[in-house]
Amino acid sequence: MTEVITVVQRTPMTLPVVFDTFDIAAADGDADSYLVRPDDGRTHPGLLLLMDAFGLRPWLREMMETIAAHGFTVLAPNIFYRSGRAPLLPLPNPAEPDGQTNFFAALAPVRQQLTPDNTMADVKTYLDRLSACQFVAPGALAVTGYCMGGRLALRTAGAYGSRIAAAASFHGGRLAVEDAPDSPHHAANDITAELLIAHADRDVSMPADQITLLDSALDVAGVRFTSAVYRDARHGFTMRDTPAFSEAAYERHLHALLALLDRTFANGTA
pLDDT tens for residues 33-46? Predict the structure, then answer.
């Protein structure tokens, strides 16, 4: 499905965008995906957006439109494609006291299908599909991720080296766990991208000791990175359709992300 949208948002926009949905042939089935690009027929730098646990939905599409209107071709695959097409589950009802708990209990078997190996193999498929898109400029790509997608974005930067020019993680959890072989900080020496990592100060999945460990590992490896702790923010602060949303933190994240992308792709390519 293809739809042309003129985006009207609170954040500055420049270009009308085109929204597409299509399937990507992945290792264990077809991954339903969103693609948003400027509606000018030109190539633009490619960005892979890795979803949070709530999956592909209208708010992620809106975020993609915001980034695409700034001059990027943005792909977001359904990481949970092995379990079905998005949305797998309805968003938790904030009025239900146990809504969030019940949602993640139902999601547990879906998440268990994701292993360190198959997620990285899937990401390669997504990167290949993005690079092959006729509306993506040649060269390295960017990746940004949210919650679980933030962790995956950093792992992608480590696994695919020079293919990734910029990587951002927002309210990602468990980014520096010593006894987890797939913890992103273990791959610091393999990262050539510039990183942007934004934490929430009220996020129990990313405590201060992990932030310190991650920053130290990146420093030792000589990685170019910005690490920031957003005050009065909760895990999931970018997600307007959840109770964790913070307008101030969302706007700060958007400004920082677009600044990273502008630095990296100053000439339209990396």
Answer: 999 999 999 999 99
